[in-house]
Amino acid sequence: MNSETPGQTAATAPHGADNRRGPLRPGERVQLTDEKGRHSTITLTEGGAFHTHRGFLPHDTIIGKPEGTIVTNTTGQQYQVLRPLLSDFVLSMPRGAAVVYPKDAGQIVTMADIYPGARVVEAGVGSGALSISLLRAVGDYGSLHSFERREEFADIARGNVETFFGGPHPAWNITLGDFQEEVVRTEEPGSVDRVVLDMLAPWECTDAVATVLAPGGVWISYVATVTQLSRTAEAIRADGRFTEPDGWESMVRGWHLEGLAVRPDHRMVAHTGFLLTARRLAEGATGLVAKRRASKTNFSEEDLNAWTPAAVGEREVSAHKLRRAARDASSKVQRGALENAEKYNADQDGTPETP
């Protein structure tokens, strides 16, 4: 079945788009929703089955069906079958570090004005959640250069990105090492359109960011605490090569919708992190000084010595957990590739496609 849109061919369709269309295939991840609204995400395999205490559901009853199909397991339990949205995938994928939540990723893409074809650098890959959103935004002909200090995190992110897009993304490149050192070595001065930092101490990167960011380019930082937000803002002001920084946070509250019982949910996604943006000024220009400034902008020696992962509440992830998450992410890529290869070989041999 041809799942391309009119005017597109397999060679010109955006990377990963074909995986979002057409009947459900072996190697794909799908989301099952039961009658109580509970979600389960599985990878389809020929001959496989989804087991619960309420029976099992053969994968073959799903493979070849369109999205939105309702299927029934061996005990009569019904499930709604859909491909996971990006927000669903991010919250269920293997992880070694905390992910950037969809509400923050959406804000980053919009407020940093990430556009198709943009040249973006990112520091702090984590588990690859934000990288997926950035790759979708820059498209096949843009560029996302990600910097990560820990190889285990890079392996997990690579597996998750390849699972989501169905293989390596042509716009993505990962470099292991310290952002401040590597970005000025790998990127030409003034050649980057956007800088996205998700790291412990972004204020240490003002010079590196100012070096590679083009005039008018956007720098956006994601930080967890008020003290990080304050120190980053003051470092940007002190540098003088950026516009006045702008900081905010977003909160998402769902609503209960049932008949006339329409009210806010009792639980919500509240604080996850702060976002701070600034733009690069032209070379030689000096940022305008705000008329109102904080009365105290200096940090004590005690403040400067407090910036450790433990001090800001960042939990250490064990090496064992990281290796396990990396293997899990990699196995999903390999499983999907194997299923796709078998299907391709069957098509080449003229084997009729499973209805």
UniProtKB/TrEMBL annotation:
GO terms for molecular function: tRNA (adenine(58)-N1)-methyltransferase activity. It comes from the Bacteria. Residues 1-27, 323-355 are annotated as: Disordered. GO terms for cellular component: tRNA (m1A) methyltransferase complex. One of its GO terms (biological process) is tRNA methylation. This is tRNA (Adenine-N1)-methyltransferase. Transmembrane segments: none annotated. Pfam families: GCD14 (PF08704), TrmI-like_N (PF14801). It comes from Arthrobacter sunyaminii. Residues 90-255 form the tRNA (adenine(58)-N(1))-methyltransferase catalytic subunit TRM61 C-terminal domain. Residues 1-11 have a biased composition (Polar residues). Residues 17-27 have a biased composition (Basic and acidic residues). Keywords: Methyltransferase, S-adenosyl-L-methionine, Transferase, tRNA processing.
